[in-house]
Design goal:
The complex is a heterodimer.
Chain A lengths: L15 H6 L7 E5 L25 H13 L4 E5 L9 H10 L3 E6 L6 H8 L4 E6 L5 H8 L3 H14 L6 E6 L7 H10 L3 E6 L6 H8 L3 H13 L31 E4 L4 E3 L10 E4 L5 H8 L1 H6 L14 H4 L4 H6 L15 H16 L26
Parallel strand pairs in A: 1-2, 1-7, 2-3, 3-4, 4-5, 5-6
Antiparallel strand pairs in A: 7-8, 8-9
Helix pairs in contact in A: 4-6
Chain B lengths: L8 E3 L3 E6 L2 E6 L4 E5 L2 H9 L6 H7 L7 H13 L3 E3 L1
Antiparallel strand pairs in B: 1-5, 2-3, 3-4
Classes of the chains: A alpha/beta, B alpha+beta.
Chain lengths: ~400, ~90
């Protein structure tokens, strides 16, 4: 959703944001996490990846999902994981999608992007690559993503540049430790002829445990907001719309797209309304169910509900509500804030106050203040034993 | 290049169009940008461009009132700017 700027309406003007809110025939931004397997264990991993889940979609099932995307005219799918290139059928599935008119953008830590792969990737106009970097130097990056991972990512970027792959993405999750490196990230992107993409740290997966110490401070948020306003070409996936409450809106649709323009398919085929809330409350179904993905997107009760006008709740009386729309659902959900409450990083500080109050309450009652994220896939899968009967 | 409504235009071969209730979405695989086509009428015009040797002939064939042409031309000029449409 790089450029929601659109031609002037030749007929009666419509409000595009309202149109997006009530949903589209197919998602604009469809994230597909192909595997929970990963060679890294990043401290902010949204899907707590590590090991493959034995229930992951088979190659045939994955092909069927792609067939369905092609029928729905999904323009492109964002493949992630885990580290998606670890799946032995990854390159086959990429080809399978491209041959059917579904473009692929995949996120990778770069470990499999050698010179040969980079050359192959650069030959297709329907493939885009996103390399994850979380620091502009090895120390900052490796503290999030593990020792040696910065060098791996840089090698991948060199390979892509040398193969002539222009405008691949360098994707950075903004943390307390890398916001002062914004200019260095921009310089890195220029050096490798890439486009910079900055996204928000969400308190999901393993990120739920590290968010409190790693999310940007309020001063840093203000710095980021002004930096982004000056650089409309930097991509953000619209993830900082809560900062629009600081003044002039940031470029983009500035609304929560969950279930309206975005959704996620996880490695076992579960479909979630928001790519950052892998939690049963936001699971709409499974692609293996009768009717598949299309019927979940078009008919599931959860998605229908999310396309209804949402209550502004506690934020209704705030003059900035139109700008920030109450912020990010995922950020609220995993910090224990009601969905009609303020964003935990509300620029007016209303979220911080609520989290502090919640935490006090939780200390007194012994009840957890926040919903639990899904299982951590970096640990062995617990085997469920059937109930034993005594003979 | 300046948009010229007396010339012929075509949809860029790397652009895919998907109908939506409000009109359509157009995705450009070269610059990876998404464009909103804000009315079904506009979508129909864009799809008919291939059959006409000028944009205005396409308007006339579609029976669009000439008072509305400037608004359509603005919309199409913007799409030419983002290379969704290219000179034929």
């Amino acid at each position: 959703m790089n450029n929601p700027a659109s031609p002037a309406s030749p007929t009666s003007p419509i409000n595009l944001a309202d149109q997006m809110k009530s949903g589209l025939d197919a998602p604009i931004c469809l994230t597909w996490e192909l595997t929970y397997a990963c060679n890294l264990q990043c401290v902010h991993c949204l899907s707590s990846s590590g090991r493959r889940d034995p229930r992951e979609l088979t190659t045939t099932e994955a092909e069927a999902v792609i067939d369905e995307m092609a029928r729905m005219q999904v323009f492109y799918v964002n493949i992630g994981g885990g580290e998606p290139t670890i799946r032995p059928d990854f390159w086959h599935l990429v080809d399978y999608a491209v041959e059917r008119g579904v473009g692929v953008k995949f996120s990778t830590n770069g470990s499999r992007i050698d010179a040969v792969v980079a050359r192959r990737l650069s030959e297709s106009d329907y493939i885009d690559v996103q390399i994850s970097i979380d620091g502009a130097d090895a120390e900052t990056h490796d503290s999030i993503r593990g020792e040696g991972s910065f060098d791996t990512a840089i090698t991948a970027m060199e390979n892509l540049r040398d193969a002539g792959f222009n405008d691949f993405k360098i994707s950075v999750v903004m943390t307390r430790h890398n916001i002062d490196q914004l200019d260095e990230f921009a310089a890195l992107a220029e050096r490798y002829r890439a486009q910079l993409r900055l996204t928000r740290f969400r308190p999901a997966g393993r990120g739920a445990e590290t968010w409190h110490e790693l999310h940007p401070s309020s001063d840093q948020q203000v710095e980021l907001y002004h930096w982004l306003l000056d650089r409309p070409d930097v991509l953000t996936g619209d993830s900082f719309f809560h900062l629009s409450a600081l003044g002039e809106p940031l470029p983009g649709l500035n609304l929560c797209g969950a279930g309206r323009v975005v959704c996620l398919i996880d490695p076992v085929g579960d479909v979630y309304a928001c790519p950052f809330v892998l939690h049963s409350d936001y699971r709409a179904g499974n692609v293996r169910d009768p009717g598949g993905f299309a019927s979940i997107w078009r008919q599931s009760d959860l998605f229908a509900e999310m396309r209804q006008p949402q209550s502004a709740g506690a934020c209704a009386t705030c003059g900035q509500f139109d700008a920030c729309q109450g912020g990010c659902m995922a950020a609220k959900f995993f910090t224990g804030i009601a969905l009609d409450g303020p964003d935990p990083e509300c620029v007016k500080g209303l979220g911080e106050d609520l989290i502090a109050a919640k935490s006090d309450q939780s200390d007194r009652s012994g009840q957890p203040a926040t919903p639990a994220s899904g299982p951590d896939h970096s640990r062995p899968t617990p085997v469920k034993l059937g109930a034993r009967r005594s003979a | 290049m300046k948009f010229d409504a007396d010339s012929a235009y075509r949809l860029h071969p790397k652009v895919a169009i998907r109908p939506e209730p409000f009109g359509a979405l157009a995705y450009h695989y070269d610059n990876r940008r998404l464009n909103f086509l804000r009315s079904p009428e506009l979508v129909a015009i864009i799809e008919s461009l291939r059959d006409h040797d000028s944009v205005r002939h396409a308007f006339r064939a579609a029976g669009i009132d000439s008072r509305r042409w400037p608004a359509f031309e603005t919309a199409l000029a913007s799409l030419a700017e983002s290379e969704v449409l290219v000179p034929a």
